[in-house]
Specification:
Helices cover 54% and strands 3% of the residues. The chain has 236 residues and is mainly alpha-helical. It has two domains: 2-76, no CATH class; 82-229, Nucleotidyltransferases  domain 2 (Four Helix Bundle (Hemerythrin (Met), subunit A), Up-down Bundle). It is globular, with a radius of gyration of 19 Å. A two-stranded antiparallel sheet has the order 1-2. The protein contains ten helices and two strands. α7 (143-151) packs antiparallel against α8 (158-182) and α8 (158-182) packs across α10 (215-229). The protein has helices spanning 2-5, 33-42, 46-52, 62-76, 82-100, 117-131, 143-151, 158-182, 191-199, 215-229; strands at 107-109, 188-190.
Amino acid sequence: MRMLSTPLQEGPGYPVDARLRPTGSYGPLVVTRRSWLEYYTQKADLWEIQALIRMRCVAGHRVLGCSIEEDAQSICFQSRDPRTVWERLCHLRQRMQRERAEEREGAIDIKLGEGGLVDLEFMVQGIQMTEGHRDESLRVRSVRQGLEPALEHLDLEPAAKREQVLAFRSLRALEHRLRLHTNQALSRLPQRVFEEMKASRLWPPVSEDTRLDDWQDLLILRRRVRSGFRLCCPDA
């Protein structure tokens, strides 16, 4: 783990967070396939299954890795009671916004805050976990790939669906350029920093249609994202 995460001349390595294993910080680093399956089929909380949607094998035994990916897909995309899923996800989303988003006047969190990227991620992944067992187009890893198929399961006009897709692309592009500007993995964006990015021509990107020319455009976009998310979580 130390070798993987050590920064080298070419750049930083690959950070490994072993705290995310099912048994916690003091559990074994390696488990058998049987115990892994037992945990995710019998004990795992919904958010742990939600995290499995994005799982992919990056190294090691190819046959075993592909087999585990298939197991994960069968766990994620099975028939569930939508009411139970959304009750849990909406609670988790509200808690995340309340406890982790650091927003105040003149500063927003483009990932964790109201109308941020996590609204779109939870919306897509919730639909994947409730409808993926019967809609093959939802069985994808990335939110970018799953967004348009997921929106087909919501009662939205075509123009509103396009707005949600554009909002995701805009927020992702803004998050990337914020990291370039600060050289840190940040999602908290003060208005002052946004204006600095515009002055340095880091924003808006010429290659994407973001339609975020000023701070008010960004605030309006967040309200549109949250309005879409409320179709799944009315109390958000």
